[in-house]
C-alpha cells in the first residue's frame, strides 16, 4: 500500500480516500462512529505523548534524532492523522476549510501585537 505520496504532493481528498478504502476493505464502518473515532484520536494522542513523557528538551531532541524512536513518533502521529481523516471522511468535514476558518478565528483572538512571543491564552493578560 506504500505509494509515492508525500506532503508536497498529497491531496487531502486522496488521504481521505486512502483511509476510507483501508477501513471499508476490513468492514470497519460499523466501528467508526464519530464517538469512536474521536476516542481513537485521543487514545493515539496519548500514545504520542507517552513518547515524550518525563523527557527534557535535550532528550526529546535525541529521541527525534534516533531512527528507531523517531519511527515510533511518526507512527503515533500517523495513527492520529488516520483517525482525524477518517472522521472527516465519514462525516463530510472539509478539513482544509475548517482549518482555514479556525486560523481566522484564532488570528482575531491572538492578534500579532498581543500574542507575539507569548504563550498566554487570549483571556489572560500579557505579562
Give an overview in words.
The protein has 127 residues and is mainly alpha-helical. It folds into 2 domains: 12-93, MazG-like (Helix Hairpins); 94-127, no CATH class. It has 6 helices and no strands. The mean pLDDT is 95.
Concise account of the structure shown:
The protein has six helices and no strands. By secondary structure, it is mainly α.
- If you compute it from the alpha carbons, what radius of gyration comes out, rounded to the nearest whole angstrom? 18 Å
Helices and strands, in order, run as HHHHHH
Return residue spans where pLDDT drops below 50 for at least 5 consecutive residues: none
CATH architecture of the largest domain: Orthogonal Bundle
Report, as a whole number of angstroms, the end-to-end distance. Answer: 51 Å
Mean pLDDT: 95
Q: What about the largest sheet?
A: none
Write the layout of secondary structure elements.
Blueprint lengths: L11 H14 L8 H19 L4 H9 L1 H24 L4 H15 L2 H4 L12
Helix pairs in contact: 1-4, 2-4
What labels describe this entry?
127 residues, mainly alpha, Helix Hairpins, 2 domains, 6 helices
Amino acid at each position: 500500500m506504500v505509494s509515492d505520496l508525500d506532503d508536497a504532493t498529497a491531496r487531502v481528498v486522496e488521504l481521505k480516500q486512502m483511509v476510507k478504502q483501508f477501513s471499508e476493505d476490513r468492514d470497519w464502518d460499523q466501528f467508526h462512529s464519530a464517538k469512536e473515532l474521536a476516542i481513537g484520536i485521543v487514545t493515539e494522542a496519548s500514545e504520542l505523548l507517552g513518547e515524550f513523557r518525563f523527557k527534557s528538551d535535550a532528550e526529546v531532541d535525541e529521541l527525534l534524532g534516533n531512527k528507531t524512536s523517531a519511527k515510533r513518533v511518526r507512527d503515533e502521529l500517523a495513527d492520529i492523522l488516520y483517525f482525524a481523516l477518517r472522521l472527516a471522511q465519514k462525516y463530510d468535514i472539509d478539513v482544509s476549510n475548517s482549518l482555514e476558518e479556525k486560523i481566522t478565528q484564532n488570528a482575531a483572538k491572538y492578534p500579532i501585537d498581543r500574542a507575539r512571543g507569548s504563550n498566554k491564552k487570549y483571556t489572560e493578560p500579557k505579562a
